[in-house]
Amino acid sequence: MNKTNAETKTNKAYSRGRVSEAKVHYWGLAWLLATAGATFGPELLWGYGTLITSIGIAIQLALGFGMICAFKGVLLAMDELQRLIQLEALSLALGVGVVVGVSYELLEDVKLITFEPEISHLIMLMSLTYVFGLFLGNRRYR
Amino acid sequence: MKNRLKVLRAERDWTQAKLAEELDVSRQTINAIETGKFDPSLPLAFKAARLFDMLIEDIFQDKVDS
């Protein structure tokens, strides 16, 4: 009987975490769509109209902040070990992003690369580093 | 830091999932504490002490004490 109650409560806690994660996914998807709209809209949809472009960027920015708040909700729903794993992964991603980003920019400044560094390259690097950090953390504490 | 969580859990015939639910943490956290990979915060240690009706130092011991 006790075991059944425990499993039920654990499932509830698990569900709380899943709900928070689902919110981040929805906010992230909305932000991604708004970013795509703000990027391609001026050229393909509304011909670089200043007002509508500004509104598009404002919406994209607002959704971005919504995504940040939703991610904070995910962190608050986690226990202390899960938060530690997140902290280590996020600090690794931030550190790698800053260090490699500065070097990457420097390469262009001193003409060792011919193309211009893009912010998207940095975002991809930080995202991959974050996922790698999560993998390492979960492996270490499993 | 050493701890007696695994012993105390076994005495009550509790699974890691059951203890995790009682302490409102994940099963991964219980496993990491039991294997010494992760030291719990003071609030979590107090919670464990209340759950087992023991003193914190009866559950968690500094390694230099042994």
Describe the structure.
The complex is a heterodimer of chains A (142) and B (66). Chain A has 2 domains: 1-77; 79-142. In chain A, 87% of the residues lie in helices and 0% in strands. Chain A is built from 4 helices and no strands. In chain A, helix 1 (2-44) runs antiparallel to helix 2 and helix 3 (80-109) packs antiparallel against helix 4 (119-140). Mean pLDDT of chain A is 88; it is low at 1-7. By secondary structure, chain B is mostly helical. Chain B has a single domain (2-55), classed as 434 Repressor (Amino-terminal Domain), CATH 1.10.260.40. Chain B has helices at 5-11, 16-23, 27-34, 42-52, 56-59; strands spanning 2-3, 60-61. A two-stranded antiparallel ribbon of chain B has the order 1-2. In chain B, helix 2 (16-23) crosses helix 3. The model of chain B has no long low-confidence stretch (mean pLDDT 93). The chains are: A mainly alpha (142), B mainly alpha (66). Chain A binds chain B through residues 2-3, 6-7, 9-10, 13, 79-82, 84, 138, 140-142, and chain B through 15, 17-18, 20-22, 24-29, 31-32, 37-38, 40-41, 44.
The major beta sheet of chain A can be summarized as: none
Shape by Cα distribution of chain A:
flat
Low-confidence stretches of chain B: none
Number of domains of chain B: 1
Distance between the termini of chain B: 10 Å
| Structural class by helix and strand composition of chain A | mainly alpha
Task: Tell me the major beta sheet of chain B.
Answer: 2 strands, antiparallel
The proportion of strand residues of chain B reads 5-15%
Number of β-strand runs of chain A: 0
Proportion of helical residues of chain B: 55-70%
Q: N-to-C terminal Cα separation of chain A, in Å?
A: 28 Å
The global form of chain B is: globular
What count of helical segments of chain A does DSSP give?
4
Average pLDDT taken over every residue of chain A: 88
Helix content of chain A: over 70%
Q: Kindly state the mean pLDDT of chain B as a whole number?
A: 93
